Input
Amino acid sequence: MLSVSQLNFKYRHSSRPALDGISFTVQPGEVVGIVGPNGAGKTTLCLTLNGLIPHAIRGRMTGTVKVDDIATATAQIHDLARKVGIVLQNPEAQFFGESVEEEIAFGPENLALPPAEIEIRIEHSLALVGMTRFRDRFPFHLSGGQKQRVAIAIALAMEPPILVMDEPTSELDPQGKSEVLRTIRRLNQEHRRTVVLASHETDELIQIADRIIVLSADGTMIADGKPAEVLGDDKALTLGVRQPQLFTLWNQLGPGFGAPPLDAAQAVQQLMGSIGARAVPKKENNAAKAPVQISCRNLVHEYTSGVKVLDGVNVDIRRGEFVAIMGQNGSGKTTLTKHFNCLLRPTSGSVTVEGKDTGGLSTAELARTVGYAFQNPDHQIFSQTVGEEFAFGLRNIGVPEQEIGLRTAEALGATRLDVGPQDYPHFLGKGERQKLALATILAMRPEILIVDEPTTGQDWQSAVDTMETLRALNIAGRTIIIVTHDTRVVAEYARRAIVMADGRIIADGSPSDIFYDREAMKRAALRPPPIVELAALMTPSGAPASGILTVDEFTDCLHLARRVAS
Amino acid sequence: MNRFSLFEPADGFLHRLDPRTKLGVVGLTFILILLFNDPRYLGVVLLVAILAALSIGKAVRKLLGFGLALLPVLLATILLWPLFEQAGTTVFEWGWLRVTDLGLLFALAMALRISIPVLATLILFMTTRRRDIIAGLVKIGLPYPAGFGITIAFGLVPMLVGSGQTIVEAQRARALEINKGNILARLRKSASLIVPLMIGAIGSMQNLALSMEARGYGASRARTFLREPKFSTADRVTLAVLCIVLLAVVILRFLGYGALFTDRL
Output
């Protein structure tokens, strides 16, 4: 019903093709995942499927995309809108109305359907995404997951048999992600919608996709097949695609355990009986006895509306720690970190940085000590050249002109960013802009570095690069605080994890303690990495004991257990 | 209720009126301020507008902020107009400075001419959903894209406010102190806020345009509305009153009432 053949597309003003010779077909009822590094053309491919390319975006397209045997290039875009619905990455960018109802009515109104029919479609599409109660709400006031479900309802109101989604979960918190994934699964299984889904999040993708298509950085298609065939292969790793954790484990285990499993429950079945028990040495906090750098006492932050975003937080962060703060959106984690450099002031309680109460300090004064890199690099990049972008912060804190070049080169080196001071920042790729934003903060040589969502929206390679940069800085003695939803990153890099819910810290300890603390994980609605889920499931049957955080630790543990057994 | 939308959900008389009726009333106030330049007549119009605003209920407090924002403009109007309007008898003279009674009255009229349409428009937005205003405009004969443009402009505000706040924080974290330094330095610093905001806004507009295309924007010339505006008895009565008032004021003005200077607006 959807077929792509020899598709090429080159954006106007671009020197290289965004898509190069793509061919595949999608059968009714299938869920097809599209993966690939940033810049591989995932978004471009999504936009070709409902005719937005070539009709709304300029460029040169050759080859064909056919929906029900109609070529998109010659069809009307609003006819295609009834066949292929699209959900973009950022739901907010699609909203303009004062109520959810209005947003959903917009499409059917454009089709000039009678009001009674529009009414039925609104009710139906809201019911499909479980948002009926929110019909009169202001769209911008919903949570991330709810917004994305509204965006899906907007697409559903056109009643398309096919839904195309471009990274619908990448900007959501874990709760929002699972809401949206559940919705997609239900749409597919119970309502027979065909789904094409671009995503970086392969651990989740393999649980809903029937097939995976891999695009490479040059816009070509390099694989199309079942998830286990395509991503089980180690080749996937070299492409900037994150390999599902359980697939990595299966590769390391070698043959004899069956096909790579899609989730922990399946994995435990296949491993059962073949493994003995072993405890893992715990990774200790490397800085548990170092002097305290940031200290919060009974920290409360209240909005003028009276809502308490932080409700009595006590925490000490020590020199040289690598801390990850986790929790749902609205749990208070970003509000907490914004107190560390005085972007926000306590309603009551105190925050001390390097022994000084921050009450008398400004954000600008603290910028020398506390660096804060925001999630979206485009919120800070504004200069004509990379060099100017660095100079901005450095001049603000009074670094002498002759030292700026040196500091720029140092920070570019630390982030392994291959650009020169004369390059134009806005022409860099998304991953590079993210590195640049981090580098401009690093150049200010802060003792403490706070990074908000360092890996969100990044492909696996850029995520690893960023985290390795942070690890190196930590080893060199800097204190690193990350705010993240990415539990695999926490397991791999952090030495201490803080879990927040409802404005309080509900768990604080080493990642190996936190991820096995079912109660805390449940309360914060967080899901540990698949390998932890697997290890935890195996514990009662006498298998790898708690403490395992990575695939390597898991396999080490197995090898050890086997040796003991023999 | 929320920062991004003036509309206040309620079920009062003004809320129930058809958007076209309300657009007509707002239109009438525009005619009134053009016809009259005597502050006593304009004062009556303002009084009616204030009574209408008060009928909304508690939410009318929202308007205070706008009132405060408008205050400097009104003060400047009242202080500056007398310097240019020199007809009438002198009430005050100091060097080359001369203020006349007619000048003062005319200045007051000008201030009223600014406040009345602003108040009328705000009342319209507080009692009518944006989509209903658009539906009303389209029913009157405005092409849909023109009406929709208005919605988009307002719909962008929440997004700009949201990203604006984050941008300010992101730059403050880089030791930006926007309130320090002379005007030139501040202007230069403001680039660090404006450039990301503009680039973000352009990106959002592109996304919105794509999303609209995907939702069949422009698919049919005869677009429908989920909530079609309908005239009720209250609307007919209001429109009848509106016509009578219109006729009355035109006659009044023709007879020379309501104008300080009969020879000009």
Observations:
- Chain B touches chain A through 58 residues (CB under 8 Å).
- Chain B has nine helices and two strands.
